Amino acid sequence: MALITQQQILRSYNPPFAKSMNESVSEAAATRLKRSATKAFSITEHYDIFLCHAFKDAQYVEAIKEFLESHNLTVYVDWIDDPQLNRAHVTPATAAKLRAAMRRSTSLIYAASVNASASKWMPWELGYSDAFHGRVAILPLADENKLVTAYEGQEFMGIYPYVDDDESGKLLLNSQQESKNVPIRTWLQGSGNSSLQLIKG
Fold first, then answer.
1. Minimal CA–CA distance to 58: which of 27, 37, 83, 95?
2. How far apart (Å, rounded) are the C-alpha atoms in residues 146 and 5?
3. Looking at the DSSP assignment, which residues form a beta bridge with residue 49?
4. Alpha-carbon span 82 to 39, nearest angstrom
5. Is the pLDDT of residue 101 over 60?
6. pTM for the whole thing?
């Protein structure tokens, strides 16, 4: 599994923000992005990707979203596209809005990090999307100093394809079960319900 590191994401896709890593970046990113959000999620709007992530990784989410959107993909991030949501309080209304966003997204990409294992929302979002449309993929995200232990306790991730890019910068989905990969757009447009079917087919 080719791991993408947090530092790589910041250096490669958002260099100015990478310089502020020592300045309470989680809070700074969340505040700045909420201010810049210009619209709330619409019940009729469609997204290519629902980005499932731990809020403690907020400092990396802008860079991940920017990276995916640079490949002409539309990306939903709850506290950016629907800033009135409060992830700290689990309510039926919050869950309903997240379900609506997942139903309006073709796929879910799970930003797998050290913080993901402690998230209460991420397993629920992954399970809901897997059952609803089956297009689930993993974006490995680890600290350079924690590559070995980053995914302990999250072995279930091995059943899903993972996001990678080739030497030309083309975004791919790689099967962890077989040595096969497909362009992410092909994966998004494929027929069938299973992420693995789309990779294997």
1. 27
2. 9
3. 75, 107
4. 7
5. yes
6. 0.77
